[in-house]
Amino acid sequence: MKKDFISIKDLTQEELKEIFELTSKIKQSPHKFSTSLSGEIIALIFEKPSCRTQVSFEVGMYQLGGMSLSLGPEQIKLGLRESTQDIARTLSRYVNGIVLRTFAHKNILKMAECASIPVINALTDLLHPCQALADIYTVGENFRNFKDITLSFIGDGNNVCHSLLFACSKIGLNLNIATPAKYAPSPEIVKEALVFAKKSGAKIKLFNQAKEAVKAADVLYTDVWASMGQEAEATARKKQFSKFQINKKLLLLAKKGCLVMHCLPAHRGEEITDEVIDSNNSIVFDQAENRLHVQKAILIKLLGDKK
Question: Are the beta carbons of 168 and 137 closer than 8 angstroms?
């Protein structure tokens, strides 16, 4: 892998498979990797609230024999209290890696440019690559391969959707995306994904109606309608997305036994109903667990391979 993990588009299909293979080994025998990153330290810089991302990185680093330092917005204010380049250069003298969860994507690009140590994208407004890798790994666990499997993403063309576009198009997983026209994913990212899809054989399709996108779907996936930083738009978005809820009626239009995913946190009763997220079709919490295993694999690839 490259020095940093910023976007899935930077990885080859072979590198993705290597990460997934390592993830399976870690998940099956975690004790075998308990000293993989002994003596290594990562800094977690979180400008946005987090549950799964922070806990999975902290626990993961501990289970690999290393440690982590959590730096919240009250300690690190990129570009305000101190410049991003100065933070990157300073931390490069103290720790072995930086995990950044921020707003503007330019922040992580600047951090990676200025840091001499690996930088991991723990979420920006544009991308959420750690989440998407865990998602695709979870799909692979359930279907053993990605050929002729279709994942249908229903909702907002947001950072999760963007990273799924890269992940699916790279690995060969078919992807249907249904969004209101105003909330479609970035045309530039869709264009890039279509290029990757030609090589992998994945089929990428965009829809403006949820019912059309779920036909023949093996997996239904959704996310919140208003992400962090979009709270002021929540009321307007509820109206726009009212026909994009994953509920029992929509689930019945997909393949029999269709699985359901959500990256969490879920706004139950909005983008997904209790009946669906708590059903036997749901693999939401398997998906959440796999954040830990996949991120441990990423950490080893970035920090351990050089040792």
Answer: no
150: left (phi over 0), alpha (psi -120 to 50) or beta: beta
Q: For residue 154, what are its two tokens?
A: 């229903």
User: Could you write out the three-class secondary structure of 276-295?
Assistant: HHCCCCECHHHHHHHHHHHH
Domain 8-127+290-304 sits in which CATH superfamily?
Aspartate/ornithine carbamoyltransferase (3.40.50.1370)
Residue 306 has pLDDT above 70, yes or no: no
Instruction: Please give the model's pTM, rounded to 2 decimal places.
Output: 0.96
Which positions are annotated as active-site residues?
A: 101, 128, 131, 223, 263, 291
Model confidence pLDDT, tens digit, residues 10-43: 999 999 999 999 999 999 999 999 999 999 999 9
> Which CATH number is correct for 132-287, 3.40.50.2300, 3.40.50.360, 3.40.50.1370, 3.30.450.70?
3.40.50.1370
* pLDDT tens per residue, range 178-198: 999 999 999 999 999 999 999
**Are β-strands 219-222 and 204-207 bridged in parallel, bridged antiparallel, or unpaired?**
unpaired
